[in-house]
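Please review the protein record below. Let me know how this chain folds according to its tokens.
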Amino acid sequence: QSYCHRLQHDMYFLTSTSRLNEQVVDKIVLQLNRVYPQILTNEEAEKFRNPKASLHTRLSDLLKHLQKKGDRHCQEFYRALQINAEQLFNDLPSRKILKTSDPTEIDTDKEQYMLNDRGPVFFLACFSVAAGLALFWYCCSSETKVIGRARRILGFSPIIIRRHVRNICMLYLEDISRN
């Protein structure tokens, strides 16, 4: 998007009440007058710094004048605005469009919501299913010796699995291995 189109898009935002004060507008006009190549001539700078005209009128005239001059002049205006009113520059509607127009950029607020949408119960359920599938795959694998490894695993867990549950599991595993 060209700077002239961006400036046309931002014009209402910039000229609305109390966005830019008189000192900032004067600094921008002076910078445009002094920058190389000179964007505003001395006469034009005097016209846009005239205290007899209202700030809204001077700013509107300045923006229209820059749009007529071309893209380079509008680009220098944005540079001057960034230097003299950085917070306002960051809040411009065209800047917000440019920030969100990148399709590869992740919207962190939306991503955070999507990641935190489910609670800890969902995590525990998924973890339990994954652990159950892993244990099932491990026990049903024909390449491994199930009884010996299962006996070792269950034999070292009397604190977690009570003695009678452990005995039932051992009997069940031995019964499966015989068949």
About this structure: The chain is about 75% helix and 0% strand.
